[in-house]
Amino acid sequence: MMQHKRGPISLEQSSFVDMMPKRLKTGVPLSSKEKKEKVSERISALQQLVSPYGKTDTASVLLEAMEYIRFLHEQVKVLSAPYLYSTPNNLQVHNALTTSTQQFDYFITN
Fold it and tell me: Which pLDDT belongs to residue 75?
């Protein structure tokens, strides 16, 4: 797994918040061109989050996002481990987190 060395991002540093349109539900279906533009905007916003100075093609952005999500799942497990094993009830929470991570990995690989 790749090591992620990410520092905190301030809103001033990232303009992805401005790029994300508000979700409006309208009765009018979007045209194919509008759908493509919407997906492109969201991929650009995702790219700014996961790899602001890296590759910008869709496949690379999605791969980087998947790797970063896996990294975050591992961080949750590592950082919550000391708290999870303190009582028997917390062991159930640990098992639920492990199952959630396994389901995510299965979804991503299939």
Answer: 93
Local structure of residue 7 (DSSP, 8 states): -
For the record, the structure tokens of 92 come out as: 């159930």
Give the pair of three-digit tokens for residue 106: 């299965």
Are 43 and 61 in contact by the 8 Å Cβ rule? The answer is yes
Instruction: Compare 5 and 98 and report the one with higher pLDDT.
Output: 98
How far apart are the C-alpha atoms of 53 and 91, rounded to whole Å? 40
Q: d(Cα 62, Cα 87) in Å, to the nearest integer?
A: 38
Structure token pair of residue 1: 């797994």
Burial class (CB in 10 A: 0-12, 13-18, 19+), 80: middle
Report the alpha-carbon distance of residue 76 to residue 91 in Å, rounded. Answer: 14
CA 29 to chain centroid, in Å, comes to 27
Residues whose CB falls within 8 Å of the CB of residue 20, separated by 6 or more in sequence, listed in order:
41, 42, 45
